[in-house]
Design brief:
By secondary structure, this protein is α/β, with parallel strands linked by helices. The protein has one domain (2-338): Aldolase class I (TIM Barrel). The protein is 39% helix and 16% strand. The chain has 12 helices and 13 strands. The chain has helices spanning 2-10, 15-30, 35-43, 76-80, 125-132, 155-166, 191-206, 224-237, 271-284, 300-309, 318-323, 326-338, and strands spanning 52-54, 57-59, 63-65, 86-92, 105-108, 113-116, 140-144, 172-176, 214-218, 241-244, 264-267, 291-294, 313-316. An 8-stranded parallel β-barrel has the order 3-4-7-8-9-10-12-13, surrounded by 5 helices. Strands 5-6-11 form a 3-stranded antiparallel sheet. Strands 1-2 form a two-stranded antiparallel ribbon. Strand 12 (291-294), helix 10 (300-309) and strand 13 (313-316) form a beta-alpha-beta unit. Helix 6 (155-166) packs parallel to helix 7, helix 7 (191-206) runs parallel beside helix 8 (224-237) and helix 9 packs parallel to helix 10. The two termini are 29 Å apart. Keywords: Cell membrane, Flavoprotein, FMN, Membrane, Oxidoreductase, Pyrimidine biosynthesis.
Length: 339
Amino acid sequence: MYRLLIRPILFQFDPEKVHHFTFSLIRFLHKIPLVGSLINSYYEVKSPKLEREVFGLKFKNPVGLAAGFDKDAKLYQELSNFGFGFIEIGTLTPKPQDGNPKKRLFRLQEDSAIINRMGFNNGGVEEAIIRLKKNKGVLIGGNIGKNKVTPNEEAVNDYVICFEALFDYVDYFVVNVSSPNTPNLRELQEKEPLKALLNTLQNLNNSKGNPKPILLKIAPDLTNEQLLDIIEIVNETKIAGVIATNTTISRDGLSSENKSEMGGLSGKPLTNRSTEVIRFLSEKSNKSFPIIGVGGIHSAKDALEKLEAGASLIQLYTGFIYEGPKLIKEINTMLLKKN
């Protein structure tokens, strides 16, 4: 029903406005008694065979929602009813910021893709915490970044602020230095600044009584040499793992009208490259750390390819928008049949 009826209507309107409308609709429906339970009973596939233990955390299934969809932790409880095993909120920054000027979100329907140049628009970490305090059992990842006005040489301070503030309210952390939509942010992926940032966070983490897993989210545009550096950095800093991958700045093979828009590209054009990155990291590291695979998952087959390439868990974003919540059920049902 979603693909045949709902999506064609929603896709007639501005994508950012549709996002806010959809959030309001889901929130409204969940206020009706029993609706949340009905949604959950239809979409969630429950089985011990789907459970995964990764970096010390127990996931009820391996299909998560990627960061960027519920930036401000406004709907994580309701979204979990669609069958997700975990929800990643953010990217959050220390101070609220509006992000880049609108229009900043574009559908590429012929390519089953999206270009965004949102620019870490969020209400700030403290506002998100108010909502996270109401969490009822959803496994939450906290994706953290720096404010646009913070120079790179002071970026570590922004990550530390977010880490300290969120520590008691998320199950794992994601260090986002790979968004193409904050000026110069990707420079922090270079070996020395990245090592310094991760060591600072890991030292802070280890000073806690119950350290949390810290993951690094990387761009799909890194060279093999840079990916080898990532493996070295992960092993040296002893962070928990990697999320592969963020959006791409590549525009190869696109046919849609909006293909020349600036920003990060997600969706089907990223499917093969993100899987290549996952396989490279997994093989070259001898599977020495877990990988969360994300990028162009629009079918159960796409999900399986990521897992077979070496991902321990997967995340959806653009595929969720194009295919609807049934995609989560299709993936988990397929994985259950393969067990």
